[in-house]
Amino acid sequence: MDKKFLLGLYETMFRIRTFEEEVKKQFEDGNIPGFIHLGSGQEAVSAGACAAIKPDDNIGSTHRGHANLIAKGGRTDRMMAELFARETGSCKGRGGCLHITDMSVGSLGANGIVAAGIIVANGAALSAKLQHNNKVVLTFFGDGATNQGKFHEAMNLASLWALPNVFICENNLYGEATPLAKHMKIKDIAVRAKAYDMPGVVVDGQDVLAVFDAVTEAVKRAREGKGPTLIEAKTYRFHGHHIGDPETYRTKEEVEEWMEKRDPIKLFKAKLLKEFKVNASDIDSIDKKILKEIEDAVKFAAQSPTPDPSNLTENVYA
Amino acid sequence: MDKKFLLGLYETMFRIRTFEEEVKKQFEDGNIPGFIHLGSGQEAVSAGACAAIKPDDNIGSTHRGHANLIAKGGRTDRMMAELFARETGSCKGRGGCLHITDMSVGSLGANGIVAAGIIVANGAALSAKLQHNNKVVLTFFGDGATNQGKFHEAMNLASLWALPNVFICENNLYGEATPLAKHMKIKDIAVRAKAYDMPGVVVDGQDVLAVFDAVTEAVKRAREGKGPTLIEAKTYRFHGHHIGDPETYRTKEEVEEWMEKRDPIKLFKAKLLKEFKVNASDIDSIDKKILKEIEDAVKFAAQSPTPDPSNLTENVYA
Amino acid sequence: MAEMKLITGKDAIRDALIEEMKRDPKVFLLGEDLEQATFGVTDGLIEEFGSERVRNTPISENAIVGAAIGAALTGMRPVAEIMFADFLMDAMDPIVNTMAKARFMTGGQAKVPMVIRTPSGAGLSAGAQHSQSPEALFMHIPGIKIAVPSTPYDMKGLLKTAIRSDDPVLFFEHKMLYYEGGDVHVGDYTLPFGKADIKRKGKDITIVAVLAMVKKALLAADMLAADGIEVEIVDPMTLNPLDMETIIGSLKKTKRLMTIEEGARTGGIGAEIAARVAEEALDYLDAPIKRLGGRDCPIPFSPVLEEAMYPTEDSIAAAVKQMLG
Amino acid sequence: MAEMKLITGKDAIRDALIEEMKRDPKVFLLGEDLEQATFGVTDGLIEEFGSERVRNTPISENAIVGAAIGAALTGMRPVAEIMFADFLMDAMDPIVNTMAKARFMTGGQAKVPMVIRTPSGAGLSAGAQHSQSPEALFMHIPGIKIAVPSTPYDMKGLLKTAIRSDDPVLFFEHKMLYYEGGDVHVGDYTLPFGKADIKRKGKDITIVAVLAMVKKALLAADMLAADGIEVEIVDPMTLNPLDMETIIGSLKKTKRLMTIEEGARTGGIGAEIAARVAEEALDYLDAPIKRLGGRDCPIPFSPVLEEAMYPTEDSIAAAVKQMLG
Ligand SMILES: Cc1ncc(C[n+]2csc(CCOP(=O)(O)OP(=O)(O)O)c2C)c(N)n1
Ligand SMILES: Cc1ncc(C[n+]2csc(CCOP(=O)(O)OP(=O)(O)O)c2C)c(N)n1
Ligand SMILES: [Mg+2]
Ligand SMILES: [Mg+2]
Question: Which residues constitute the domain of residue B63?
Fold first, then answer.
């Protein structure tokens, strides 16, 4: 495998992690308002999936959308500024964490309504089909979202119309404070694909290459006009549902075990060094670059102006 | 098998058919306003299913709800008066075909919004569970309804909570003017049960005993606290989606073939005579009784007063 | 002068769709049973434009609206049909929380050029869930434009504007207007949003009416003219934007205001118009404002009850006389 | 006199739930994450009442509301929670088309004694989809009662009435009021629907305010009192039924009317109140009505923009002065 490609995957994951941990710090320091949903622990899903598509393909995202957007190429300075609610943010401070978006890199928007992003992303896949532009869409959503009616309607429509959509369920075992077993009876969400005569695949969401492979195959199918695939990536969020979550619904031990043994970045780093014989110094220099990037992003955000209230009603209409 | 029981099944089916055909005539004669959805051809589903439950069990119904209600014991005179929009109608002329209901016999109401009855009927099953009254609910809906988000949400919740609900999909191969293959990719809707770890069963909806058996088993499961079942009854509607439907979406030949070879009443009558050695005269006397009942129902309806506009806003609030 | 032809409302909608689809390959249709449509509006279009551009969907209102939003975000101009306006409730989340807000929430990155067409209104004994007129609800949702045409001419001209708009538009088609006739221009023309149309000139009272109520108001005005009462009828054409200038301009002349709508009176279109007048033009009122509308009641199936729900030409004329008397 | 205690809004809701669940075994709760609730209202209740009566659901708003309707139809008294009022849009169909209409459509056979509790309102930088105040929408839907309490006392008393009501009730809990303190009676009491509460007596202007705007109005009134302006503040407590008698009674005294709400101004609560006044009490108005409300704009994430969306005590006071000036 191409080392540059592998290091790219690592870089994306490390960028996400560094960004998220910095966001947590900045939130706790009082520099970020609102509700913040972090993606630490789930980096391999976004990184692996987005590596399988092209810059002008689209992604649909959720309330937990930082990782999806960074993996798709979102600029961390604009994103940090958005979370700081600054005019230089990618949404000019109007969106925040729940709606973080950069349409210039193919994001269709993070949607704060659970499962609402799925039906919209599906529409982008329809659009690609109608425009015969061979684009595909990756539609990210959580385990909890698959209990929403919208998930069902979108899956049925996508399968019926053979839309070029890859549905990626980031099954992190919880929907807010509710563990999987308390919100559905099945164990593998991929099973739900059967209800639409769609392929359903379970993949280890902590293994970036496994995600990449599964998504690559699904993307190929989609581009060939064979229709959508449901990929369930088993993963875990290291932090609470949002920052400040008391996390009464899971044990510290469970979290620690995942952090220790199933951290996608640790796992991939080890693999890079051992299996792919990557030099430690190559990794170190990526780390340094990213740490600097995020530090700069914070500076950029902190120095940016807040929006001007006299422009409040801009962009309600065209 | 008990002859009285078998003749009861026949009587119910014949009552439905006679009612429906009379409704068609009355509509065409201008005595019934609104949109009318007939259940001719689908009698075996309602009759077989409702024979498997008790008077104080509940049913949830749809826009095509006459058959469900008659099978549950709804009085045909009150129903006919309802369709005639009379004050003596079971809903006092406020509901009509789309909302035909008789709560005194356990109907939860016909719902004119596709799939909206499913979530409500599910709630009655929850109620039964909470009240520990050992009641079950039969929830009727069409093939088209299973593409609605509400179907999905209700199925998931029912399975998760092991609600005493039997989901009965009357798959009549069309949703309004859209054939099955144009609204979903799967062939058997029962497959959808897998998405909820729920048993899914396909049954011949033109065979009243087959329906009865399948529902009996599902009801037993439900009463034992083992949760819901999805039963897909393959059936066919002999008339258009509503009276006046131009039926551009199917051939006359197809309809005629079903009417000739797959009429549930004809089939069951033949079976009664041949297999169960029922006397033709027993059947004839049922036919006569029912013909008279429906004739009387029309008289009752026609002679009943229309609602008084000065009472219009009654029953908006308690 | 442009050539005119007499067509029904249904055909006016249909013509607008056909002309816009021919004009712009990005325009496409999706919705339930478009192939054999409940009110016949889209019949034959699939033969003309193919099943790629005229897309018959499953019964999945959320997926329909969501698909339209996603397609609009990525360069298309979808026209979605919701089979009855009552079923808008089923897609309320994507309409209110995504469609209406996408442009704003993204700081102007997104544009959502889409139309949702939907038949509204009573008159067919279709009962409480197939007869509603929910237009007013959407006035409370910033980010959605709302068209409420009352004639074939307005339907065609406003629908073309809606399809070309870069904002999402909710387009209400009153069922009882589908089969009413009226003159339209042959070929292309558009009508502006936010510009009310004075459907009848008069000096004694201003009536603001929408959709099927315009005709009832016109009939009432005919009756009143016989008694020497000159009614001015203002049809706002769109509820958002709402042309208060024309309404208040008319009121300045007549000094009396009545609003007529088919949706429930409470919280309706008339409420907003009356409030705007009470804020901005109070001094011109020589009499209390009068709002007519649907009763605050679910819509009954029974034809005699259904009729009692709504203003009629007689009750309008009587209310006008009472105001002037 | 009844014993009083000082508690937060959150605890007032919680106390009402606990007392009603103890009083009536038919009362039960369902909703998302009730076990570890977003705003903590239901924390601990599952331990007290068990997971049969405090039912944590999947993220399925339609199924939640549908289940509540079905349970209500069959003898229970469900209290459903929709986690944010914004998500009501997701269950709009069962709310509008079934819950509100079941009694009427069945000719009175059905009764739907259920409550939907939901946190509304802005102030937490939660953005356009988690900050809305959609109360006014439901005024346009006949068949639904609507409670809008502004104090812990009102919350507890109105919620008990809601739970005991045989009509479906939408119960709005403003997020910013969860953590405000206020005195409530210890133990059982109820407050009537349709009876406004005069939160402050005054003679110069009537302000009708709801939910979190009551407190802002009270603060403005304090400021204005220093200038000798006596504001009367009417809190309608419920929007349906709406106590126009008290509002008009106050207006007859003060001759001036201002309405304040947090939801979008257009098509809002104030529109209906202003229209009713313009119809029924026009002659008492000495000045144009003034409606304050949320801007007609999706709610921005940015705190500085979010603040600019809404009336503040300063802007209220300034507007009052302008009206009187
Ligand atoms: C329609 C809707 N209901 C409820 C919520 C509140 N909510 C936000 S995130 C969330 C949990 C989502 O779970 P999942 O889909 O598994 O995503 P995760 O948070 O685990 O990434 C809930 C209930 C919402 N935003 N939208
Ligand atoms: C939410 C909603 N969408 C659309 C409709 C219009 N409609 C009424 S019945 C029907 C077809 C239903 O098909 P199916 O569920 O198969 O039932 P069937 O009519 O075949 O008995 C449609 C589309 C509706 N009533 N509600
Ligand atoms: Mg999750
Ligand atoms: Mg069908």
Answer: 3-305
